[in-house]
């Protein structure tokens, strides 16, 4: 049985609240779980102690049994000091999407076209001054 330590959503519409649970990976997100390990309330400020509460001993026990945390839960465990920090690298995250790149190219073309006529009269005026 593949075990996961993951978030199970609760709360009402637009008011999320999550339970940190140990569950079989084949079960639905909000469905059957084996043990509740803690809670996560994303509506609280990031520096609040009540934002993430978990039973660290129970989490360690599940990790020893082979349970795999999801990405989000792994970050919470890293912040709590249960797991070692993992090096993450997403070089494509900062690059703009296809449409944004096209808009940037169009903007650059327009700026170049607007700058070209503005330079020509300045060059002609400089040439007239040199001729006199």
From TrEMBL:
InterPro entries: Ribosomal_bS16, Ribosomal_bS16_dom_sf. The keyword Ribosomal protein applies. Coiled coil: none annotated. Residues 120-132 have a biased composition (Acidic residues). Residues 99-110 have a biased composition (Basic and acidic residues). Keywords: Ribonucleoprotein, Ribosomal protein. One of its GO terms (molecular function) is structural constituent of ribosome. Residues 80-132 are annotated as: Disordered. GO terms for cellular component: cytoplasm; small ribosomal subunit. It holds the Pfam family Ribosomal_S16. GO terms for biological process: translation. It comes from the Bacteria. HAMAP family: Ribosomal_bS16. Belongs to the bacterial ribosomal protein bS16 family. This is Small ribosomal subunit protein bS16. It comes from Salibaculum griseiflavum. The lineage of its organism: Bacteria, Pseudomonadati, Pseudomonadota, Alphaproteobacteria, Rhodobacterales.
């Amino acid at each position: 049985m593949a075990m996961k330590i993951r978030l199970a959503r609760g709360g009402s519409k637009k008011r999320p609240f999550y339970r940190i649970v140990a569950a079989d990976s084949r079960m639905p997100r909000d469905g059957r779980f084996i043990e509740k390990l803690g809670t996560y309330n994303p509506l609280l400020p990031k520096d609040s102690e009540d934002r993430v509460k978990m039973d660290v001993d129970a989490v360690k026990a599940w990790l020893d049994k082979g349970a795999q945390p999801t990405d989000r839960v792994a970050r919470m465990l890293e912040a709590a000091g249960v797991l070692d920090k993992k090096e993450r690298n997403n070089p494509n995250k900062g690059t703009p999407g296809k449409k944004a790149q096209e808009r940037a190219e169009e903007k650059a073309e327009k700026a170049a076209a607007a700058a070209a006529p503005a330079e020509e009269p300045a060059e002609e005026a400089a040439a007239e001054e040199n001729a006199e």
